[in-house]
Amino acid sequence: MPARILIVEDEEALSVLLKYNLEAEGFDVDTAYNAEDAKVQIDEQVPDLLVLDWMLPGLSGIELCRRLRANKKTSDIPILMLTARGEEDERIRGLDTGADDYMVKPFSVPELMARIRAMLRRVNPEIVSNVLVAGEIELHRLTHRLYRAGEPLELGPTEFRLLEYLMQSPGRVRNRVQLLDAVWGRDIYVEERTVDVHVGRLRKVLNRNFEQDPIRTVRGTGYAFDEKF
Ligand code: CA
To answer: What is the pLDDT of residues 61-88, one digit of tens each?
Structure first.
């Protein structure tokens, strides 16, 4: 599953630009325009990383940062603080706001991307590795390419996400609810048997010219991707 990033930024143009660029890198991106809204979203689902503007209407970015650090559930979220030139004072330079890193506006988007990747890599190397490899199967996250024994395979977007999610944790059994949340998202209602339909399609492509099926069905539960198949 791609890393989820929450952007908390009240400048809409910047928020849209960041969302666009982060999605192009393969991340799942949510946005909030103020700290209160961000708090509600974080309570619902803790993101893998937070891009947080310093100056927000209402509760400031620093105050939100402080509150997140004080809460056990959210104290470890990597936080990249954004600040306007002139706003950066000693506190942010010393990062004693609780942020892990900061960038001064206007910043270069590629540099921001590089910092975000570096921060995520520190926490969870797998989450930013662009290529997942298991046996003869190679999945390229960013380019959405899939190979088995060097042969390119064509998967639909849903089957691709399904395989990506399963390959991320080899051997681990994922139930249908977890698969629905990870692949279809929480916002839409999909019947659990839809998962089975898409796993069927995935298997058809993945195993067309091969005897071994890396996807294991766990009766009554869900599916796993077996590294040794
Ligand atoms: Ca602002």
So the answer is: 989 999 999 999 999 999 999 988 776 6
Report yes or no on whether pTM surpasses 0.85. Answer: no
Look at residue 218 and tell me whether its pLDDT is greater than 80. Answer: yes
Distance 11 CA to ligand 1 centre (A): 6
Asked if residue 10 lies in contact with residue 33, where contact means CB atoms within 8 angstroms, the answer is: yes
pLDDT at 110: 81
Domain end position, chosen among 110, 127, 144: 127
Note down the domain range covering 190.
131-225
Task: Give yes or no for a contact between 52 and 93, defined as CB atoms under 8 angstroms apart.
Answer: no
Higher-pLDDT residue of 130 and 173 is 173
Q: What is the 3-state secondary structure (H, E, C) of 177-188?
A: HHHHHHHHCCCC
Gap from CA of 60 to ligand 1 centroid (Å): 9
Task: State the distance from the centre of ligand 1 to the C-alpha of 53, rounded, in angstroms.
Answer: 6
The domain boundary residue, chosen from 101, 127, 153: 127
